[in-house]
Amino acid sequence: MNKSRKLVLTSIIVAFGAIVMVQFITAGTNNNGSRNIIGLIQSQQQQQLLLQLEQQQIYHNTVNAQQISFQDIPIKSVALPAQSTTSSPSSSPLPNIFKQVENSVVQITSKTPSPNSSMQIINGDNPLDNQQSTRLGSGFVYDKLGHIISNSHVIDGARTVDVTFIDGNTYTANVIGNDASSDIAVLQVRYNNTNLSSPESLVPLVIANSSGLEVGQQIIAIGNPFGLSDTMTTGIVSQIGRLLPNPDTGFSIPNGIQTDAAINPGNSGGPLLNLRGEVVGMNTAIISGTGAFSGLGFAVPSNAITRIVPTLIQKGSYDHPWIGIAGGSITPEIAQSAGLPPNYKGVVIGSVQPGSPADKAGLKGTSQDIMGASTHIGDIITAIDGHTVKRIDDIINYIELHKSVDDRIKLTINRNGQTRDLDVILQARPSSVVAQ
């Protein structure tokens, strides 16, 4: 065997000797159909996005613990050449950022009863399902009082969860606040009966202002994809201001951050960081045809965290302002039907929820005559508090970011070719809405 063939053979042996196959069985449908898959959502905030997604689905990024398996391939011992002990310092800030934040990112394990258990065990007055579903997600330290931030869907109805730090220590945490509408939950680590010595051992992450994010800015995601703890990935901000459908409420999460940083099941609740190691978002979902990362990840913006979390800590819940309309952008067909000029901008109201702020203010939705022969175009919203409206996203994002329950907004509308202003007093968003 000549020298070149020996080198090739040695390279192949080294390569195979370094391989450990990790088999990930991606989350599939449960007994209810597809618990982790966001299906069609009948709310005013979903219509356009659903059309764009076509056959793809949006997945929450939790993973069932029992669906992770590891298969080791025997490794053949191969003598490797000695490595140089000298190397030039890395110019990348990523290793330092990881060291800076690694003690603040945790793995969260929640156990909830299996929804279709046929048998029950009675424990005192509380019936307990004999089967439990174990879900793995991520979270990060919010303050030295033991508060941990994660996604609402990671908790999934649990009252207590296990929180594991990078040193391997695991503690019990109580769920003290939960807002499914924004997909934010707050936990608090128990100090008694654990070896968590004091709050001083916690290292809170710094939360930045997400309104300063720009498309193309480099960001970092840290979490526990498929249960693999303390995993760092990096990418860029692909877009900002996205509406993210939420299957648990039927309302969108506004101002979402889109990123191409690799996010997979288990990353949910982990921080999205800038290059200073500051939190700019919380990873929550992906768009994928398979359930695995396909280049489209989404995060709840940090501004939502700073706005909502203090209320969750204080009250346990958060009231979102609500207007009560379903609508969409003006298409060329709608513009022609309504006698509008080409490229007219605004949101056509499709329907108005009975008893909603929009209903009380007198806003009109699209309707058909009794015989269904013709369609009457509803009010067209062209501005909110003087800010131009082009898409339904503009209305939802503005209200969520700048308004509170009982605040008054002014909507500029086009009704039958006439422009008028209507005052609307916002109400607390209901837990669900009636499809129109």
What is the CATH architecture term of the domain at 321-428?
Roll
What separation lies between the terminal Cα atoms?
Answer: 78 Å
Question: How much helix, percentage-wise, in residues?
Answer: 10-25%
Uncertain residue ranges: 3-56, 66-88, 116-130
| Name given to the CATH homologous superfamily of the domain at 321-428 | PDZ domain
Work out the radius of gyration: 25 Å
Number of strands: 27
Q: Could you please describe the fold and organization of this structure?
A:
The protein is built from eight helices and 27 strands. Mean pLDDT is 77; it is low at 3-56, 66-88 and 116-130. The longest helix is centred in the N-terminal third of the chain and has 15 residues, at 3-17. The chain has a domain at 321-428: PDZ domain (Pdz3 Domain, Roll), CATH 2.30.42. The protein has 436 residues and is an alpha+beta fold. 38% of the residues are buried. It has helices spanning 3-17, 47-53, 94-101, 152-155, 302-315, 332-337, 357-361, 392-402, and strands at 37-38, 57-60, 63-64, 105-113, 120-123, 126-129, 132-141, 147-150, 160-164, 170-179, 184-189, 218-223, 231-244, 253-259, 271-273, 279-288, 297-301, 321-322, 325-329, 347-352, 367-368, 375-376, 380-384, 387-388, 408-415, 418-425, 427-428. The termini are far apart.
